[in-house]
Amino acid sequence: MSQTVDRALSILPLLAEGPADLGQVADRLGVHKSTALRLLRTLHEHGMVYRQSDQRYRLGARLFALAQEAMENLDVREIAHAHLVRLNESCGHTVHLAVYEENEVLYIDKVESRYPVRMYSRIGKPVAITVAAVAKLLLADLPEHERRALAEKLDYPMYTSRSTPNAAAFLQELAKVREQGWATDLGGHEESINCVAAPIRGADGRVVAAMSVSAPNVVVTADELLTLLPLVRRTADSISGEYSGRNPAEPK
């Protein structure tokens, strides 16, 4: 039974390369055509493959529907939380997780700093979209026309002297973030608070969430916080791997 399942599943990567006929499938599996046909018929009955009019087989619509449903039901917060806790235990600073929904960037998880100075951010609360490091990462991943349209309609409050002043500066910052793959907020929202952030990506490479480490100047300087960037990026990569299915989940 396990060999049959293994052979059937081996057909799917082959068809992902493009349509293939019965002979090509049999050759790839190293089996007789009758065996390959039996496997293809079973996959066809379940909508996993589709037989074209030229008698070649391709991936079926049911497979794509299942993949889409699985992606929609993935809970990035549930997957990320243990990683965020480990990062917090390692560095001691506040760790955030954020997503982009309906033109807002929202915090969906937070692990508090072990230091007595706490941040006012709350789960479910929108971030300062024009300055927050997590927002820069999420918006930088949007298609260019969407980035421009959003940048033009945003307000640009000057929270501090380091806040983003206008759409042109914001787009320039997003281009930089998109190229380097990480972001910072060094006193852009609050003079005394600095933040470094990294993206969490799905199986298609798109940014699905962003995570950050934040700390006040009285605890660490901006330069000291920036030394944590490699650790933050490794944590984000680990979450991305588990979320996209590239890496197995670590024991909780």
Provide tags for this entry.
alpha+beta; two-stranded antiparallel ribbon; 252 residues
Largest sheet: 5 strands, antiparallel
Structural class: alpha+beta
Cα separation of the termini = 32 Å
Number of strands: 7
Rg, please? 23 Å
Question: Could you name the ranges where pLDDT drops below 50 across 5 or more consecutive residues?
Answer: none
Mean pLDDT: 90
Strand order of the largest sheet: 4-3-7-6-5
Describe the protein.
It is a single chain. The chain is an alpha+beta fold. The protein has ten helices and seven strands. The strands form two sheets. It has a five-stranded antiparallel beta sheet, with helices on both faces. β1 (49-51) and β2 (57-59) form a beta hairpin. α1 packs across α3 (33-45), α2 (22-29) crosses α3 (33-45) and α5 packs antiparallel against α10. It is elongated, with a radius of gyration of 23 Å. The model has no long low-confidence stretch (mean pLDDT 90).
Per-chain topology:
Layout: H1 2-16, H2 22-29, H3 33-45, E1 49-51, E2 57-59, H4 61-73, H5 76-91, E3 94-101, E4 104-111, H6 133-140, H7 144-153, H8 167-180, E5 183-186, E6 193-201, E7 207-216, H9 222-226, H10 229-244
Antiparallel strand pairs: 1-2, 3-4, 3-7, 5-6, 6-7
Pfam families: HTH_IclR, IclR_C
Domain IclR-ED: 62-245
Organism: Streptomyces marokkonensis
